[in-house]
Write a structure and sequence with these properties.
This protein has three domains: about 45 residues, no CATH class; about 210 residues, Rossmann fold (3-Layer(aba) Sandwich), CATH 3.40.50.300; about 100 residues, Rossmann fold (3-Layer(aba) Sandwich), CATH 3.40.50. Helix content is about 35%, strand content about 20%. The chain contains eleven helices and 13 strands. Strands 1, 2, 3, 4, 5, 6, 7, 8, 9, 10, 11, 12 and 13 form a 13-stranded mixed β-sheet that branches. Strand 8 and strand 9 form a beta hairpin. Helix 1 crosses helix 2 and helix 5 crosses helix 10. It is globular, with a radius of gyration of 21 Å. The termini are far apart.
């Protein structure tokens, strides 16, 4: 309820009585946010504080807004493409929601052979999802990505490091900055947190080497073209591309794949704990599923046995053939799901930029030149 009220206050409409006071409080806080960020970054701009530089190319995938823009599927796309090109890749992630961070500040979730930490409470839901989806690709979680980067170099000798959700991690030097922008609602109301959804001002788009307009198929061609032009006007050297989120298949708890049309027409109970839950529910309807109930938890929510029991005892579950969720949620739900309960299935969604080949070629060229020392850092 608290989150819904905040998001309502972000809407570009005349404030209701219940959100007007919230806007009044959050506006000066947003101004302080911008001033504080400017002060924090000033020593970097003046050369008084240095970023940590790793000896190999670092690619960051991130966004300007809080919430889901498709970072995980984009990371999966990029890492698979780099590995298909013969490169050794390591992923560094923050690991939101970890419960053992104080005990193990730098944790290797997976290595070249297997997943080491098959526990979302310790690894974080997104890192564990990445580790299971990319066998043979090391995934390391840590709040301090400088430390995890040093561990990656020492233990795995990668050709390239991919920094998951790294746009706001200024302490580590990045050679390629990939920023994701949701084409449907690019920058919210234009305000930084807490008055709006922006983590940093829109002007910071100028530091991006690549901007991917995600879910561009769900926005009008005119609005996408206008958005692309606005980004190019800010930085003519930015590579602007588009991508779409494409449902691929269904996954069972044990990882078996099923065709999308296998569940068409079935009644399902949908549950998720991702930022853009409403889009997930709409995707299910677009696939021809009858969603009898939507259950939405906060992003990165850690499911408990009580949560699952409540799901399975609701009267709607009696009308459902299957409980459906996302791949990220399956990481947290699958190992707790009662064997006697109705089936649990996850929808796999992938993304791919429209100019995949040309973009990967340009990224590979930058990696080679950076690692060879042709690019000064």
């Amino acid at each position: 309820m608290k989150t819904d009220l905040i998001e309502e206050s972000w809407e570009l409409t005349r404030p209701s009585p219940r959100t007007a006071w919230l806007r009044a409080i959050m506006t000066p806080l947003a101004v302080l946010h911008r001033v504080g960020l400017w002060c924090y970054l000033l020593p970097y701009r003046l050369g008084m504080r240095q970023q940590h530089i790793l000896p190999v190319c670092v690619i960051s995938i991130g966004n300007l807004v809080s919430g889901g823009t498709g970072k995980t599927p984009t990371t999966l796309w990029l890492v698979r493409a780099l590995r298909e090109s013969g490169l050794r890749v390591v992923i560094l992630s923050r690991g939101h929601g970890r419960t053992n961070e104080s005990v193990d500040p730098v944790m290797i979730v997976s290595d070249l052979r297997a997943v080491r930490v098959d526990n979302p409470e310790w690894a974080g839901d997104e890192p564990l999802h990445l580790a299971k989806s990319l066998p043979g690709t090391p995934v390391i979680v840590a709040r301090n990505r400088r430390d995890s980067g040093d561990v990656a170099i020492a233990q795995f000798q990668p050709d390239v490091i991919v920094l998951d959700d790294g746009m706001q991690y200024w302490q580590l030097h990045r050679d390629i900055e990939i920023c994701l922008v949701d084409a449907r609602q690019p920058f919210g109301n234009g305000w930084v947190l807490p008055r709006g959804p922006l983590r940093e001002p829109v002007s910071h788009l100028s530091k991006a080497d690549v901007v991917v307009l995600t879910r561009s198929d769900q926005a009008s061609a005119e609005s996408v073209a206008t958005l692309a032009k606005d980004i190019k006007d800010r930085n003519p050297d930015t590579w602007v591309t588009q991508s779409s989120h494409v449902p691929v298949c269904w996954l069972s708890i044990d990882g078996q794949q099923g065709a999308l049309d296998e569940m068409k027409g079935l009644s399902v109970l949908a549950v998720t704990a991702i930022a853009d839950a409403d889009q997930f529910f709409q995707t299910l309807r677009d696939l021809g599923l009858n969603v009898v109930r939507e259950v939405k938890f906060p992003d990165h929510h850690s499911y408990t046995k009580d949560d699952i029991e409540t799901l399975l005892t609701g009267h709607e579950v009696a009308a459902a053939h299957v409980v459906v969720t996302t791949e990220k949620d399956m990481v947290k739900l699958g190992h707790q799901w009662p064997k006697s309960a109705i089936p649990l299935a996850a929808l796999r969604i992938e993304t791919r930029p429209v100019d995949h080949d040309a973009l990967i070629e340009a990224i590979l060229d930058r990696i080679v030149r950076r690692n060879r020392g042709d690019i000064e850092v």
